[in-house]
């Protein structure tokens, strides 16, 4: 095997060996919204319509049938015009809970190779606590990830996405009520 | 001379036996914290916290319980724990991304069998020499590994190929590649070796494989994303954790994997272990960083105790009477 081919193979390995060998990471972000859980659920429960409240989602395209959620999948176009696809795993309107996962990864959009996320609403004193959490893996799942695809890059990107989303959700729901 | 040697061996065996039978211990791996904690099964008390190299995932004991071998995918290493001293003795470089691990005590020498997620291989490690002695191809992203010491067979779950690789434990011979769900991850072999149970988080079910015919002989529906399996000592119940809906499901292996119960545990449960008396089970709740103690008579959660960040795997220390000779 010549050296050039070997180098190409070595470069290609982390992509081929696409999996979840590294340590899974987790985050949980919360916000309290001055509205009832039902009022917050009326917004976040429409799975395909995240563009209506998330400030860094330029566009969301719903697809797949789901009687209650309106859609079982969504494609999100982020600020840099890159797209990630997500699909709904669980939808529990009575518990004000939904869970979804990354369906089509796009490291240009988010430096995360896989995630599963939960959104849970709970009633607090006259308002609603929104908890948005995820389990995920870094963008490069090989053992020598570059800085922009390591654990910290994944944590930072998803944390920012959740925080800005929760701020946007609060603004949207509180201006509605 | 020979006589006294034999007496010494017998004395040590008895000592080990009494030590091990008295202590029903669980080892819990905490991947993010890089620790292994030792729990007294009866009291739920943490007896020890063993610092290990970063990112531990899989753990297997030697047959006599004196050593625990731990995989570290991100280090390309397997560390060796002395369970009497409760500390890491050394780390063996195996390369790749060592993930699942099992110990084969069925021949004259102990071997470690390690699945390598990155190189799509099963790695054979001689722990005495601390060296890789063979590497056999598997399917893509091999995770779970089960050893049938008596019938000399190895089973590897290939998560990304949707298959189980069946290999000879003694020769580099491939017996079969079995189509088994969408993303087979964890394996549990019956004591006789006749049945192999497979957790398939991709298909949200548990499969039974008849190991004599290599055919899938049963399907059991469980919750979302089943990730770990354990059998009760009488093999009448198969315990399955499902990460997606935070449940522990109890299935009946002899009744076509009929579901007997579903018990809600903490968030993102993974590892599950059964006490040697078959009366209780422990579940590692990854997201919550807790362990749930489950009563297997009433199917109720009795209590939760803290683990360290990233607890994933729970393995009971083998008793002397379970040890292969």
Automatic annotation (TrEMBL), chain A:
Keywords: Signal. It holds the Pfam family Polyketide_cyc2. Residues 1-19 form the signal peptide. It comes from the Bacteria. This is MxaD protein. It comes from Methylohalomonas lacus.
TrEMBL record, chain B:
The keyword Signal applies. It comes from Methylohalomonas lacus. It comes from the Bacteria. Residues 1-23 form the signal peptide. This is YVTN family beta-propeller protein. PANTHER family: DIHYDRO-HEME D1 DEHYDROGENASE, PROTEIN NIRF. Keywords: Signal. InterPro entries: Haem_d1_sf, Host-pathogen_enzymatic-act, WD40/YVTN_repeat-like_dom_sf, YVTN_b-propeller_repeat. The lineage of its organism: Bacteria, Pseudomonadati, Pseudomonadota, Gammaproteobacteria, Methylohalomonadales. NCBIfam families: beta_rpt_yvtn.
